[in-house]
Design brief:
about 425 residues, alpha+beta, 2 domains, 5-stranded mixed beta sheet, about 35% helix, binds histidyl-adenosine monophosphate
Length: about 425
Amino acid sequence: MKGTFQTIEGTSDLLSGAQRPLVRIEVWRHVEHVIHTVMHRHGFAEIRTPVLEPTGLVARGIGELTDIVSKEMFTFERGDTSYVLRPELTAPIMRAYLQHHMEQKPGVQRLYYIGPCFRAERPQKGRYRQFHQFGAEIIGTDDPRADAEVIAVMMDIYRTLELTKTQLRINTLGDAETRPRFRKALVKYLTPHREALTKISRERLSRNPLRILDTKVEAERVLLEDAPRLLDYIDEDSRGSYEALKGLLQSLSISFVEDPMLVRGLDYYTQTAFELEHAGIGAQSALAGGGRYDLLAPAIGASHPVPAVGFAAGMERLILALEASELLMPEEHPFDVWMIALGETAGREAFLLLQTLRAAGLRVGMELGYRSMKAQMRLANRASAQQVVILADRELEAELATVKDMGTGEQSMVPLARLADNLIKKLN
Ligand code: HAM
């Protein structure tokens, strides 16, 4: 083997102080903090589920014929069990809801999450093999206010982060019967044009024809202009819910466009489907997507439907969008105090003082090798420390330390006995 190991393509290390916001841990923590705060305000409770799930759950939940299940799952066998690294969290959360009998808890369940997901896609900007989703699910009601509520909490997160140039597209996919009837009509219309379709659309025609509506190929878009329209196949109930949702969004001043071609890449949706896009992040422009999935529960083994609606969003795409919009990107946190020690006795003394100051709640750092004053001062500058304490063996004999205020440049000698108290008082 030559050289050291590297991260797998399509995965990343997140590092403190990294140049690119996408891999700078401070940015992630800032965004995660906003997500937790907004979700909390909207009354959602956090849920964390395992990264490993039974393959059957994901395959039956998302649908055998979807791209995710047929091509993009990381699965492996152990004994006679097949495991999958979760490609999303909606099916796992419905599993958890059923497993823990959450329907017996009073009221609807509002759940939210942040965590890694895995899809074996071809990596490119905005598309990774390990990526991170945050999202929210409301389980236990078919009230269209729940659909409006998940869209509202989603929009609130982007608004709080001041990300505005987004576009919300919505559609209704109808009830359980709508899709098969529409699929049949679409296949009937497209089959005579099979040769005019791209290879990928020809594949989809037999496996998952609704996805052809998503095409970005101009000739296919033209062909689709005369295709049967999903809207003509929608049942009365779904129409009613859709109208109610649109009314609620308008009242909440959440702007949207209706997109009758919007179908989602996962099979579990009925009725509401939506996507949020941002134009500034390249080809992978979907920041978030979601919809209603009342039939997911029976698909994964429940004896009855469980009405539910939710959204999930990509963390990486959100950070790319923040970067493209030149929004504030947090840097590393500055240190309150940086200790500089010159000599071994001073090194020991500084180390003890460091622990006292940390115990009092201050953020304090020091170098652990015995390096020159200049080198240690450089580190103090990089740490953006407010105060620098310099302990040197010869000043220690007089029980004194030097304290430098990095803001004003002022320097003073302070008796060791009063040093900790002085700093704590000044900085706390
Ligand atoms: P999804 O559209 O497959 O929906 O994914 C949601 C979001 O995850 C996407 O809009 C995108 O931002 C991000 N994402 C997906 N794949 C990747 C990738 N390979 N690299 C980077 N980001 C990616 C779902 O997963 C559903 N569970 C959403 C949902 C929740 N529906 C109801 N509740």
